[in-house]
Amino acid sequence: MPTMEETGEEIFEILDVTDSSKNWIQNYVGDISKAPVPKQIAVGGIAGFCTGYIFSKVSKAAAAAVGGGLILLQIANYRGYIIVNKNKIRKEMDKAKKELSKVFEKHRQSGIFDDGVEFVKRNAVLAGGFGGGFLIGLSL
Question: Which of 58, 59, 69, 125 has the greatest count of CB atoms below 10 A from its CB?
Answer without folding.
Answer: 125
